[in-house]
Amino acid sequence: MEAILYICHGSRVKKACEQAIDFIKKCMAQNPVPIQEYCFLELAAPTIEDAYERCVQRGATKIFVLPVLLLTAVHAKEDIPNELERIRKRFPNVEMVYGRPIGVHPHMVDILIERLYETTEELSEDSMVLLIGRGSSDPDVKRDLTEIAQLLKRKAGLNRVDTCYLTAAKPGLEEALLTAKQSSYKKIFIIPYLLFTGILMNTIKKTIKISFADGEKEYILCNYLGYHPLIENILKERFTELAGEVDRVSHYA
C-alpha cells in the first residue's frame, strides 16, 4: 500500500506549525493515496521518525516522501535524507522514494506578483523590489533565489529586483536595505520569501521600522508567501514525479 509523508520545516511559533498542518490537510484532501502523514524536521512534533513509523503501522509498503521546503538547501539535500536513511534501516521491507522540494517554479513567481499587487500600491518606474530569503550556507539557495528574482523581474516588467538573506548568506537584510536606500528608487517593495509567519517576519518589520523609516523612501512590506493554493499544485507535481519515477528522484529500498 502506498503512503505520502509530508515533511515541513517546523517552528517554535505555534501559529506557524498550525498553518503548516492546515495546509498539508488541504493537500491530503486532494490526493487519493490511502495513507498520508505529516511531520516536522525540527522544533515541533510529530518527528519524521514518528510519522514514518505511523505510515508503516497503517500498512504502507511504499512511502513517497515530499519535503515541503521552499529551496534546495542542506535540509533537503542532507538533513532529511540522512534521517530517512537511518529510519529506513528499521523497516527494510518498506520502499521509500524521496522527492524534490518546491524549488524554482513559475507558480512561485505568480505568488510573488500577487503579493505585490495586493498592496494596492502602484508599481511605477521609481519602484524596486527586495526579495528576502531565509538564508543558508548552501550556494544553491543563493542561486535559486537569484533565478526566482530574475523570473519575477521579467514577468512583472520590473526595473530592479534585489535579493538578500536573514541568516547565513550575503547580503544581509540591513545591507540590502541600505543599498536600496542609496539607490534612485523611491518605492521599495519588500517581499519575504517565507512559507510561514513567526520570528523572522518580526525581525524584518523591526529592522525597517528602527533603521529605515526616515521618510526619504517609501518601504512597502508585502505579505510573506504563505501556504498559497498554487503551492498545493506544485506538491501535486512533485508527487507525480515520484509516482512516475521521473528523473531527479532518489530511491531507497
UniProtKB/TrEMBL annotation:
| Ranges in coiled-coil conformation | none
Which Gene3D superfamilies has this protein been placed in?
3.40.50.1400
Q: Which CDD domains match?
A: CbiX_SirB_C (cd03414), CbiX_SirB_N (cd03416)
MF (Gene Ontology): lyase activity; metal ion binding
The protein's matches in InterPro entries, at most eight in alphabetical order, are given as:
CbiX-like (IPR002762), Sirohydro_Cobaltochel/CbiX (IPR050963)
Matches recorded under SUPFAM superfamilies:
Chelatase
Keyword annotations for this protein, in alphabetical order, are: Lyase, Metal-binding
Q: Does the keyword Metal-binding apply?
A: yes
| Pfam families xref list | CbiX
Identification of the protein by name: Sirohydrochlorin ferrochelatase
